[in-house]
Protein: N-acetyltaurine hydrolase
Amino acid sequence: MPEQSGKVQTVLGLIEPGQLGRTMTHEHLTMTFECSHVPPAPGDEGLAAAPIEMKHLHWLQQNPYSHSENLLLNQEIEAVKEELLCYRKAGGGSIVENTTTGITRNLPVLRKLAKETGVHIIAGAGYYVDVTHSDETRKMTVEKLTDIIVSEVLHGADGTDIRCGVIGEIGTSWPITESEKKVLRATAHAQTQLGCPVIIHPGRNKAAPGEAIRILQEAGGNISKTVMSHLDRTLFDQQELLEFAKMGSYLEYDLFGTEMLNYPFNLDVDMPSDSQRVQALAFLIREGYEDRILIAHDIHTKHRLTKYGGHGFSHILKNIVPKMLSRGKPTD
Ligand SMILES: CCC(=O)NCCS(=O)(=O)O
Structure:
């Protein structure tokens, strides 16, 4: 792809890497997450159906996936626009928007947001997890899936001329399903043709990141240009984290701002606090992985927007960066 080589492809066109500024590599600006609805606990049905209000905020923070309306981030375009203007004021430059096929990607909205806020937005190509794959997707060969992903980057996606700039987030469950394995192989083949970055959503099991990387590797993917997302809810043991880091992908801690007691998708997981995320990053830096770390908020529900009392897209720049600086360099 000679035209794009060495450039960043945003929804408004190509820019130089030097124009990116501070970049959140894993966010969603418009999407739906009904595929991950969790039925409310007995007795909570009323809360789950009530309008989002301050008095319910704590319940919502603890049960974000049990409130159907909370899963419709696509209804909040104006609020997201305000947030992006604040993000720019806070020093933000770019956002990688990870919404792929299956969770209602909306490229015209991304283009409008980029035009109206001045934030560079890079859209994601490819497919989310198996439960969102259509029958048509399941029937496709790896070659057909590859052609679609390549076309989303070279020509535009979803019937528009708006081009994606990365592949991902590519969704995988645990265990990884046959349909997801096909998409992973197609992702690797498309990356070989395009040379662009890949972003993977691993299943909720400590073996999931390594298994996804192995499948990409066997299909010829470039692991040094691959991002493993959501490590903060997936890999906890320091030795296992180092074993994974040696495989060579970028290591992404992208759930900053998410603090919940019971992680409903895997009750064995203790979701870390932001302080624990910062400690995990300090550990990786001490071990020599400073240049392989990426961070973001992965906002994908309404309640995390400042409109609803959430932390918003500027939380890392306003709160986490000062926290990191207050801890100094890990060797200090
Ligand atoms: C679409 C957003 C997404 O998949 N976020 C990850 C949520 S979790 O698997 O880490 O709970």
